[in-house]
Amino acid sequence: MTTPAIGVIREYFPQAEITLLANPIVAELFSPHAWVDRVIRFDRKGAHKGITGRLRLAAEVRKHSFDMVIVLPNSFDSALVPWLAGIPVRLGKNSDGRGLLLTRRYNPDKQTSKGHEVQYYLDLVRHFGITGQARDPQLTVTTQEEQQAASRLAQTGIEPQDFLIGINPGAAFGSAKRWYPERFAEVARRLAHEWNAKVVIFGGPGETDIAAAIEQELAGTCLNLAGKTTVRELMALIRRCNFFVTNDSGPMHIAAAVDVPLVAIFGSTDHTGTSPFTDKAVIVRKNVHCAPCKLRECPTDHRCMTEVTADDVVTAAQKLMGR
Questions:
Q1: Does 229 lie in the same domain as 192?
Q2: Which pTM value belongs to this model?
């Protein structure tokens, strides 16, 4: 969701060298990226853990002699490291007790804070006079990665001409965001029959049980890649899909950023701020009084998800494809 703002930064500073400082998983999304020249990994759990690790990272950053940093996240850490590194111009939101670490500050009003995250990042950079044409979220998949994805699929009988439906039943944040394996399976079965399509299940290492349950429901008539891909491989494989059905998750945003039509199922999270930022998406959600609660686990009966039926999702997918 930061990529439109990064695109504006690239347009405003066409000759600049732009380096991204990000955690290891996010760093993979940008390695490479059309608007970024270099990526530095911020490993909070490893080399950069604790105060000693932060000082080590700041020393690494200092070696690059950066002229300016634009702090997109709102965490204290994200402003602390550039301050420790002595970057002379430090721009960011005035929040989380980090105002003194910034040389110029953004103070959005309450109404601005209620919008989409993509718009928030754009407003932040524009506040500092960095202007340009807003672009859609974008990720870069290389030709080699596309070829490797095609080869991997071909080994399982999925050819380039096949219509491919991606199913993403996981959500790393917590179980409250996850719809049910048997319902994902029913949607996959019905859409695959209607569109003469093949099905691929995606997921991270912690989501293999959910994916396996869907694979069992589909009696093996699918390709289960949950826990078997790197971030870069996941991007290339999602880009190959013709349609995507997903919970609110990182892969949902990847699908939007590589221009794949999708249906996103929302329950405990707030779609107004984190919905897929594309006109090729339909959101399925129910207006229940306790949603969005933004909790990792549901403390009651998970009605925000139990009320979403397979019919709801299939109908949404059909309408989007018809459009």
A1: yes
A2: 0.94
Separation CA 59–CA 93 (nearest Å): 24
- Report yes or no on 133 lying in a domain: no
Token pair of 264, please?
């996103």
Separation of CA 31 from chain center? 15
Domain that holds residue 26: 3-127
Q: What is the CATH number of the domain that holds 107?
A: 3.40.50.2000
Neighbouring C-beta atoms of residue 230, cutoff 10 Å:
9
Does residue 285 lie in a domain region? Answer: yes
Shortest CA distance to 31 belongs to which of 246, 230, 251? Answer: 230
Q: Which residues, in sequence order, are CB contacts of 160 under 8 Å at separation 6+?
A: 150, 154
Last residue of a domain, one of 101, 127, 153: 127
User: Does residue 136 sit within a domain?
Assistant: no
Q: Is the pLDDT of residue 134 over 90?
A: no
Amino acid at 228: K
Task: List 33's β-bridge partners, or say none.
Answer: 36
Q: Do 16 and 115 fall into the same domain?
A: yes
Check whether residue 19 and residue 119 sit in a common domain: yes
Span 234-275, pLDDT tens digits: 999 999 999 999 999 999 999 999 999 999 999 898 899 999
> Residue 102 is encoded by which pair of tokens?
């910034």
Is 200:225 a contact under the CB 8 Å cutoff? yes
Element (DSSP H or E) covering residue 215: helix 208-217
Number of folded domains in the chain? 2
Query: Is 62 buried (19+), middle (13-18) or exposed (0-12) by CB count in 10 A?
Result: middle
Asked whether the beta carbons of 164 and 200 are under 8 A apart, the reply is yes
For 275-299, give one letter per residue: b (16+ CB within 10 A) or e.
bbbbebbbebbbebeebbbebeebe
